[in-house]
Specification:
four-stranded antiparallel beta sheet; Alpha-Beta Plaits; 21% strand; Rossmann fold; 11 strands; alpha/beta; 34% helix
């Protein structure tokens, strides 16, 4: 297991890092002991603990209420910098309504695929229809065409469509510019392609980026490590 450096700021992805991946996004389960372990670590780090996720901040609040000092949701598109604070939202391009309708049609053609509507985009999950991977990616790229405002992000058994202009790197930069994170060594832990941005930003600031599969094996390994830290 890796060692947390002195004076660290801990930046954690949610799904696949703190929580086990579930068949559907609303089926995730918070493991017993995880909230108390995170609160203990947050105290040891002088509050420098944040969750950085593609989920809305409000969903993080429902899953882990009052646990992280700061929460960056929507892949950096919305950030609450302190407990009880307002959620700061980055100005991003709106999702064209016809894309969502086309995505619904695409998903309907692949039984088992699931469309998840997000605050300013959507995701298509194919964990229950793995054979549809290539067809769904091709369909999504066709829906988006040559536009320059949005991108398709690959995730674990999913593709997400989100506006450009914010990502987990911009979230890390924004968090590390403020107290209690400023001046600390950022350590970003994540499990999928979207987290590579956050890892890159942490390393650029002189910190570390740890991929779950390489450093811990899986989310259960992350939770075991957190329990030891706590």
């Amino acid at each position: 297991m890796p060692e947390l450096p002195a004076n660290a700021a801990l930046l954690l992805d949610l799904d696949g890092t703190l929580l086990d991946i579930a068949p559907t996004p609303d089926a995730v389960v918070v493991a017993p002991g995880l909230p108390s372990h995170l609160l203990s670590i947050r105290a040891k780090l002088g509050d420098a603990l944040a969750i950085v996720t593609g989920r809305p901040v409000e969903q993080v609040d429902a899953l882990l209420p009052n646990v992280a000092f700061a929460t960056a949701g929507e892949h950096g598109g919305a950030i609450r910098f302190a407990p009880g604070g307002e959620i700061a939202r980055v100005a991003l391009a709106a999702l064209p309504a016809d894309w969502l309708a086309a995505a619904q049609t695409l998903v309907a053609a692949h039984p088992g695929a699931l469309l998840e509507r997000k605050a300013r985009g959507f995701a298509i999950h194919f964990r229950l229809a793995p054979e549809s991977d290539a067809a769904l990616k091709t369909g999504l790229l066709s829906i988006l065409g040559d536009q320059q405002t949005h991108r398709v992000l690959p995730a674990l058994m999913a593709y997400e469509v989100k506006p450009k202009g914010a990502d987990k790197a911009t979230a890390v930069d924004a968090l590390m510019a403020r107290s209690p994170f400023a001046g600390r060594v950022p350590v970003y832990i994540g499990d999928d392609v979207t987290d590579e941005d956050g890892m890159r930003a942490a390393r650029a600031l002189g910190g570390l980026g740890w991929r779950v599969q390489d450093a811990f094996g899986d989310a259960a390994g992350v939770r075991e490590w957190l329990a030891r830290l706590a």
